[in-house]
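Most newcomers find our protein records easier to grasp once they have seen one. To make this concrete, we reproduce a full record directly below:

===
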Amino acid sequence: MKRSFATAIGLLCAWTALRANPVTFSVDSEHTLPKFTYTHFGFSRQEVRFDRVTGKILLDMQAKTGSMTISIDMTSINSGVEMLNKHLRSGDFFNVDKYPTATFKSTAIMFEDDRPVSIVGDLTLHGVTQSVTFTVTSFKHGPHEYHQNREAVGGNATATVSREQFGLGRFEPSVSDAVTISLGLEALRD
């Protein structure tokens, strides 16, 4: 009886130690969609996405800590209109020849209960780095049925930034200075 109890305690401690370790996830680029919206001459909100994104997420769910690094290929901008895509890639806006990549590197992830609720970090865009806080609007952690039940995390987050703070204020106020960035993200355990 003592041996069974000791074995059970040992297994419980080992399981707890395994859960306490940070876990690394790689962004599933097929199911991750960074996009931004802005107002156009006050008539409508336009939405533009980026088709190529990579990144890593490190989470310790027991300690409620983590980090996130996301890299966006700015040449993959997609408004649905090729002429607008070319204009957005040009020096009038993102100047992708000079700044082909945007990055986000978290500095803190805040949790409530068992889920992250905000992610603070440094967004580098157009050669300028600014602190940005993303509000996490949904989050899931568990087996991903589409990927043979591999452990996964996913969710959605939004932040609002000023184009002008990143040196992208051209055509304001016809194109709004305030831009909402949203990220739908899924990542699989390495």
Notes: The first helix runs from residue 2 to 20.
